[in-house]
Amino acid sequence: MYTVKDVEQMLFDWAPKDLAESWDNVGLLVGDPDATVQHILVSLDITEAVVAEAAERGADLIVSHHPVMNCTWHPVQTLRTDDRQGRILTGLITHRIAAICMHTNLDAADGGINDILAEKLGLSDLIPLNEQKIGRIGTLNCELPLVEFTHSVVKSLGCHGLRYTDCGKPVHRVAVGGGACSEFIPQAIAYGCDTFVTSDIKYHDFLDTTEINLIDAGHFPTEDLICAELVKRLSATFPAASVIKTTAHSSEVIQYCMKEN
Question: Rounded to two decimals, what is the model's pTM?
Answer without folding.
Answer: 0.92
